[in-house]
What we know:
Elements: H1 15-23, H2 28-38, E1 41-42, H3 43-50, H4 55-67, E2 71-76, E3 82-87, H5 89-108
Antiparallel strand pairs: 1-3, 2-3
Amino acid sequence: MITPYIEQANFEDTGFSYTLSLISGKHKMVILYCLMEFAPVRFNQLRRYLKHISDKTLSVNLKELEADGLVCRTEYPQVPPKVEYTLTKRGMSLMAVLDQLCTWGENNRR
């Protein structure tokens, strides 16, 4: 019997694709992990943690994570300016996924 062709959804329409769009890039997952472990975190602390990242790249990544609702930026009105980053409730919900990646890595490291 020949089964009819069932049109499959595009990859871009999947939840997996959406999740990847939020955390894709070289630094976003590391930024999220750092915020999970050490929150609240200031910009220079993140830069030291990531080591080889330019200020511009870190700033762009943080702005994207904030726009996606994963990171909260709190600016304190003082001199010199003080800004802290934390995970939002939505960002915290993503930590279960990143935690599973860590667990998998630990269990499968060679």
